[in-house]
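Q: Could you fold this chain for me?
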Amino acid sequence: MNRLFNTLQKRLFLTHMLVALAVLLLASLILLALQAPLRTEAMLRRMSEGLQPTVTLARNNFATLLLTGDSEAEERFFNYLRSQAAAQDVRILLVVEPEGTIVFDSEERLQGERWQPAEAQAFEPPLRRMRGAAMNFSGQVTRGVVTLENANWHYVSTLLLPVRRNDLMLVMLKQQPPPLRALVEPITELPQGLLVGGLLTLAAAIFLLSRWTASAVTRSLAPLMAGTRALADGDLSYRVDVSRVSLAEVHALATSFNQMADRVQQTQQAQRDFVANVSHDLKTPLTSILGYSQALLDGAAATPEAQQRAALVIHQEAQRLGHLVEEVIDLARLEGGQLHLHWQSVDPNEIGAEMMESFRPQAEVAQIALEWKPSPSCPPITADASRLRRALANLLDNAIKHTPAGGRVLLAVEHLANSREVQFSVRDNGPGIPEAERERIWERFYRLDRARTAGGSGLGLAIVKEIVEAHGGTVGVENLDDGSRFWIRLPCGEMKASSTQEGKAQRT
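A: Sure. Below is the predicted structure, expressed as structure tokens.
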């Protein structure tokens, strides 16, 4: 079955055909339900039209014979009624009134039974056929519904002639068709050519509609298919021309594809930058380590002072390499959700004061004024204290490095009551962040100082972003008239932190 309908056009054709058949069936049921009274009325009128000539011929040809009581004449009359019943596809009864005894049944099953119809109604038969015979037809015609043999029958009846102080009634009956037969009969009554032609026309229309729909979809998907092949072959510059896509859904898909291609291209470029930056950051300390270690091996550093100098440089560069590797590992763990956070209640003012004391010596060496602005009424937050210190340390280290001598760096804590957050902000007197590069500074190994005059690995802000987002917070930066201000915002209280912890646990 899957192979039979393995194309979009075939599945659309099947779907449209099923929908069309379902709609036709439902419409037919509704139409038949609405036309049921009309069809019953038409059936009764046809029966009354057949009643007229039957009664007229019976009166003209058999009335005299029936009054004589001749059994042979009665048999000929009964045969005549059977032939009329077969010709008109009805059931004919002869009923003696007022007793209601059935004396004749064209199907020969009800002789001697009682005729007990429901309340009968007067019925004016149409006089459209056998106008000459209809002139002799007289007597009231009644109609109604009667239950015979556990089935409902529609009937029309009239007085045939008086017999021995009784009335002989002629009754024509037709069984009320079941619902399924009522559905099939009108269809089978249609001309076969018209029915076959209608079905073929419907199939052709559905085929053309499904082909047109499938063609529109495939034409719109063709550029996307070409784009996926291009990306697979390494052509990251391929973009889908969304103006050539006609379907709104595929247009949205093409837009998403282009956004994905942009992100893939940016990611690949970031990977290239990662390799280049890591190569450079590893090459410089390795060169120093190799050079000084070679000097020690060759005996070039002969004096104790030279040997001490070489050992110190090797130790410092090894620490630099270790710090770089540690930052790369921590960032990878944070991005992969594999770094467990140790949650505890933390006082933001206490964390800020600790960071001020840690960086005051570095600020004094750089001749920078380090200022501290705590919050007078700041609620506690739930966080990993060591990771929070790491994020603040990276911000303060960057601020001190980019602030010229004589400038100032301000660390402030503020309670944002409207958003129920605590904000740490670090303000410096540096050159600011170019508007076009505000988003990229949070990327791994991205640095504004292309010549690397400020040093560093380029991972500090990326680690800050990952730590803050792991706490359910946000980061940002804004330029001021005399520098820039970095901020991190963390949710205060226990509830938000607990939900963040649960989400972190799911990631790990």
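A (continued): The first strand starts at residue 91 and ends at 97.
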